[in-house]
Design a protein that fits this description.
about 350 residues; two-stranded antiparallel sheet; 12 strands; TIM Barrel; 9 helices
Length: about 350
């Protein structure tokens, strides 16, 4: 079994991406991960279960429609067919909807789903001041904590249990977030998104964060990263050495990508999985956003044909992962349990 990586709490602020910013920054003294090459690959599915909004202009506090949740059963039925239990991380507008939260509760009670919280700060009370800030760790610490607290409270009211899984909206986690999560009893975080860099938007820099599971707060808070990598690491390194940057269109192949059917086809997901596996990664997450299941709600699915393509990509990938690749379908909680006793 791999020894979980430990990210020192004192280093979580790193170098702020913007002056005064609170989001994740680089930490350079991480101890090495010791992978176990004999351990099979495990795959969990994490769905950002959220309201519809304009992806070109996030942060609109009036965007609270959750009508796209009606399309979520398309994906859930696929998971059920493979015996896969997905994790739905849920925003305030979804929790506030009787119909949407009732649907999720029915799956959870049947043992067919795991549930967690997903903070979209712009639609989560309290609303103490007008803001378009979408990275939660850039909020004042007290305000971020208050929003997380209210989100947890509504979660408990809806499902009669306290949440233990968290994912920051737009991956906007920071050191202040971790203190709040520990205080609120959250034990699992799925916000890390290596190797993406959101500093140009005032957000986190994940270029140096581990793609492996890791301790954020030893013995208290464990991270299962959102799986990502580079489309062509060799080309990326060559471009960096040559100083080409993004000058050549072909260098798109060197840009970061996520293990997701949103913008990724089956061959690219398979290639990324194999490449990371060769690097020692054994815990993978396939991620997507619930509005992508309703045509017209995200840039990834414009019509019914796009949705069919997304579903076909998921179906082919799950069949390949559990079949030819020899992986095991898992839950986020199951992954954490397999590592939990290795806290420092």
């Amino acid at each position: 079994m791999a020894v979980p990586h430990v990210v020192p709490l004192a280093h979580l602020p790193g170098v702020p991406p913007v002056p005064g910013g609170g989001c994740w920054g680089p930490a350079d003294d991480r101890p090495p991960l010791v992978p176990d090459p004999s351990r099979p690959a495990h795959l969990a599915v994490v769905v950002d279960t959220e309201e519809e909004f304009d992806w070109n202009h996030p942060g609109d506090s009036s965007a609270r429609s959750v009508s796209a949740i009606a399309a979520l059963p398309y994906f859930h039925e696929l998971c059920r067919a493979y015996g896969l239990v997905p994790t739905y991380v849920v925003t305030w507008p979804v929790l506030a909807s009787d119909r949407a939260s009732g649907l999720l509760a029915s799956w959870w009670k049947a043992g067919e789903a795991r549930l967690g919280i997903h903070l979209h700060a712009w639609v989560t009370p309290p609303f103490e001041e007008p803001t378009e800030e979408t990275f939660q760790a850039n909020l004042p610490a007290e305000l971020e904590r208050a929003k997380l607290d209210q989100l947890c409270t509504l979660f408990r009211e809806r499902f009669a249990v306290a949440p233990v899984i968290h994912k920051a909206g737009r991956y906007g986690i920071g050191s202040q977030t971790l203190h709040s999560l520990v205080d609120l009893g959250i034990t699992i975080d799925t916000s890390l998104s290596p190797p993406f860099d959101y500093r140009d938007r005032g957000g986190p820099d994940f270029r140096h964060t581990p793609v492996h599971p890791c301790w954020l707060v030893p013995g208290r808070l464990f991270a299962i990263p959102t799986t990502g990598g580079y489309r062509d690491p060799w080309l990326r390194r060559a471009a960096r050495v040559a100083g080409l940057g993004r000058m050549v269109p072909r260098l798109r192949a060197a840009s970061p990508t996520r293990l997701s059917p949103e913008g990724g086809d089956f061959p690219s997901l398979k290639d990324l999985t194999r490449r990371l596996f060769r690097q020692g990664v054994r815990d993978f997450t396939l991620s997507l956003h619930s509005p992508s299941l309703q045509p017209g709600c995200t840039p990834y699915v414009r019509d019914v044909a796009d949705r069919q393509l997304l579903m076909d990509t998921c179906r082919r990938y799950l069949r390949w992962f559990a079949g030819e690749f020899g992986g095991r379908l898992a839950t986020v909680e199951g992954m954490v349990i397999s590592h939990w006793d290795r806290a420092p």
